[in-house]
């Protein structure tokens, strides 16, 4: 479980860092071609970065799907629990279990539908071709316009992220059954600071004091 404890953070960090780097290089390329520097301008013009936007969109979609799974594990999804907290203990526990079960069932359904879609979209051909079992009537499936990647690879974010969310819902339910606690996220907490530093209250602004 130590590997799964930080799986989403690693994936999001890698994707975010990669997208930032691609955007940075793309912007340098776009404005660098305007400089009349011998050889450098010709070299920049010879490069093709038309795929940069498509790649960044794909990376952000993957970040969103795995970020949703992180939200379940860390308890950062928006929820209204005013009524739940006022219920008796038995009713409150039943409500929590029902909500977590609904979340697990829903994400399992979305994951299964997503897996079925990518299987029919070309994933089956890739797997059969990998083991030398592909037949002539099988289709390789469509590809993306710029990168020309198989679209089933791009759409795999749906079933992978959904199944991971389903696992997180079940994990939260198991922890709640053992400890009676749900993951809570302190929005005022800043990662990297000590508890004492996070406990320091900032001076109130005029708006906080009731001013305009």
Automatic annotation (TrEMBL):
Coarse class of the protein's main subcellular location: membrane
Mode of membrane association: Multi-pass membrane protein
Key word Cell inner membrane present: yes
Residue stretches spanning the membrane: 12-31, 94-119, 152-170
Residues annotated as domain Tripartite ATP-independent periplasmic transporters DctQ component: 21-171
InterPro entries: DctQ, TRAP_DctQ
Sorted UniProt keywords: Cell inner membrane, Cell membrane, Membrane, Transmembrane, Transmembrane helix, Transport
Cellular localisation: Cell inner membrane
Lineage top rank: taxon: Bacteria
Similarity-based family: Belongs to the TRAP transporter small permease family.
Assembly: The complex comprises the extracytoplasmic solute receptor protein and the two transmembrane proteins.
Biological function: Part of the tripartite ATP-independent periplasmic (TRAP) transport system.
Protein name: TRAP transporter small permease protein
Species in which this protein is naturally found: Undibacterium hunanense
């Amino acid at each position: 479980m130590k590997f799964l404890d930080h799986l989403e953070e690693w994936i999001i960090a890698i994707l975010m860092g990669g997208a930032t780097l691609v955007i940075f290089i793309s912007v340098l390329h776009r404005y660098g071609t305007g400089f009349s520097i011998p050889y450098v301008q010709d070299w920049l013009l010879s490069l093709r970065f038309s795929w940069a936007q498509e790649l960044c969109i794909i990376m952000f979609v993957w970040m969103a799907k795995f970020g949703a799974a992180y939200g379940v594990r860390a308890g950062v999804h928006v929820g209204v629990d005013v009524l739940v907290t006022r219920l008796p203990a038995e009713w409150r526990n039943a409500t929590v279990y029902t909500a977590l079960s609904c979340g697990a069932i829903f994400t399992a359904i979305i994951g299964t539908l997503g897996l079925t879609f990518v299987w029919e979209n070309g994933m089956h051909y890739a797997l059969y071709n990998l083991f030398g079992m592909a037949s002539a009537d099988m289709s390789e499936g469509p590809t993306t316009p710029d990168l020309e990647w198989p679209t089933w690879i791009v759409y795999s974010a749906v079933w992978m992220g959904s199944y991971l969310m389903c696992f997180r819902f079940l994990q939260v339910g198991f922890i709640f059954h053992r400890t009676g606690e749900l993951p809570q996220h302190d929005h005022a907490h800043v990662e990297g600071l000590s508890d004492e530093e996070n406990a320091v209250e900032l001076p109130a602004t005029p708006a906080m004091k009731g001013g305009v």
